[in-house]
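Why do we care about 3D structure at all? Because function follows from shape, and shape follows, mostly, from sequence. That is the central idea of this module. The next example makes it concrete: a single protein chain, its amino acid sequence, and then its structure expressed as tokens.
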Amino acid sequence: MTTLHLDEIIAGLKDGSIAAYLGPGALRGAVDAAGAPIPADGESLILAMNGGRPMAPKLMYEFPRAAMNLELKKGRSFVNRFLTRTYGDTEWTRAPLHDWLAAIKPRYVVDINRDTQLQDSYRDTPHLLIQGFARMVGGFRFRIYQWDGSAYREVTQEEADASLPVLFKPMGCPRPEANYIAADADYVDYITELIGGFAIPSFLKQQRKGMRYLLLGLSLTRDTERMVLSNIVYDAAQPAGWALIPNATAKERRFCAKLGIEVIDADIEALLGGAMPQQAHTA
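And the structure:
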């Protein structure tokens, strides 16, 4: 049981000792011109990808399954075009959490969403963007881009300025080049290389040692999210941080306890409103 202070979290995000880890709930409040919410979680993404029509229950269980099914029917380019149209071509209002992060400018943010709001938050700040990449013959499963305040340029691990804030988009994004981890085949390849150490740049492997993490808007009821998370937070401090999960399931609590992450029965709104519970619980 640990006392949690908001000012300490903000200070840790700023100095890089705490990393923000964003899930679909981080986009809550973002809508298009017609007021429709941005598709972020698995079910909303599947419905949007399939023209608003539900798919078979076994496919509705998780977005990668549904994406794999449609890829087999319509090609990988169909899924990629859908994601680019959704996150690259459609204008969305800002999610409140992203405005909060923009004011803090954390040194390191992991964002498993595929949108560009995090990048927009750092538009006026030089930074590194690490974009997940999959299904290639050999090579690392990432691309690194350095933002100089006006444009991105691709850089190698050796060329990257490791002193800059790092935005890690493991599932990809539409800018500066559209690359995504979406279908089951993408995840199998990406997670295999993540486990093997080929999906994270060497400088980030060093920087993440001893970090703590603040998990925001992330459900941990699916194996895919858990496998990605557990490998990205490897070498974390102990305790490893906090997860804001309202009404967490027993499965989520057990998984977080295994990683040394304390579950806080609160949502993002509590963080934004400065009304965080004073105690975090592991079970």
